[in-house]
Amino acid sequence: MMTAPFAATSFTTAALQLPTEPDPGPDELAVFWPLLVQLGWFLAGFLTVVLIGWLLVQPVLKRAVRRRNRNNPTLQAAVVLYFRLLVALAGTLVGVAVAGYGGFLGDSALVISAVALAVGIAAREVIGSLVSGVALVLDPEFNVGDHIEWDGGAGVVQSIALRITRVETAAGELVTIPNTILTAGEITRPYGRGNHRIVQELGVGYEADLDEVLEQLTDVAGETEGVLAEPSPAAYVDDLGADEVSVRVHYWITDPTRRDVFAVRSAYARGVKDRFEAEGITVNQPAERELSGRIRLGDDSASE
């Protein structure tokens, strides 16, 4: 009478014991072993090239570039960046070859060429920007910190990347310019090339003594802080206008920035104003003209 409950319990326990999958053994792992070996060889080849390039060759290259281009930090940073990319690409190719896929690449040369052509056509603007970026960083006359003027604006170069150049304008705006725009047009670098000549013009009345005016202009330039003694300042009569005589003064300052040019021009203009007031020289006196004739007011149609 007591055997029935025991049999039911045994049946329930047996029903709960679900079959489990066997643990993967050597036979199952053997299927993935060739892939793991190829991955290991790829990583070994890739890391070997990258470590040798970045840890051994890059410091030597960086010191050589810095030694030959001390005033070109843009070129120094660009060379390191492009060298790292080149080493990574070389490491990838070496890793693929070491892993045993060199024959596959050789057999698929036509497919790879077609893919490269398609990518080149699709990304021609990006590639053009990259090539333009290389051209800019290799140009010794184009560096971070230079004040440049191009068709569309002017400002100080803040950074040069692979595809774009960032320029800060005089208003403090940060402008991002594609490198293709800069290489396709003209770029003017007015400052940062040694001595810089400043030309200022003004007009004086016909009654003024021109010899005295020219002498005062050069004297004030020589007394202005920042103006070089050599080449010496010079002043000339430029043009004879209807109401005034136009004169021009040239003077030089050394290796200025845009802010330095504004400061010297302002100081010189203030000095000229004070000197002319002291000497009684009139600058740009308003013209007076006597008009004669008749002015008729009224509606012509009404008189008809």
From TrEMBL:
Any GO CC annotation of this UniProt entry: plasma membrane
Pfam family, one: MS_channel_3rd
InterPro entries noted in UniProt: LSM_dom_sf, MS_channel_C, MscS_archaea/bacteria_type, MscS_beta-dom_sf, MscS_channel_2nd, MscS_channel_C_sf
GO molecular function, one term: mechanosensitive monoatomic ion channel activity
Membrane-topology annotation of the record: Multi-pass membrane protein
Subcellular location field: Cell membrane
Highest taxon of source: Archaea
Ranges for domain Mechanosensitive ion channel MscS: 126-187
Transmembrane segments: 31-57, 78-104
Mechanosensitive ion channel MscS C-terminal domain location: 202-281
Key words, A-Z: Cell membrane, Membrane, Transmembrane, Transmembrane helix
Family, as annotated: Belongs to the MscS (TC 1.A.23) family.
Name assigned to this protein: Small-conductance mechanosensitive channel
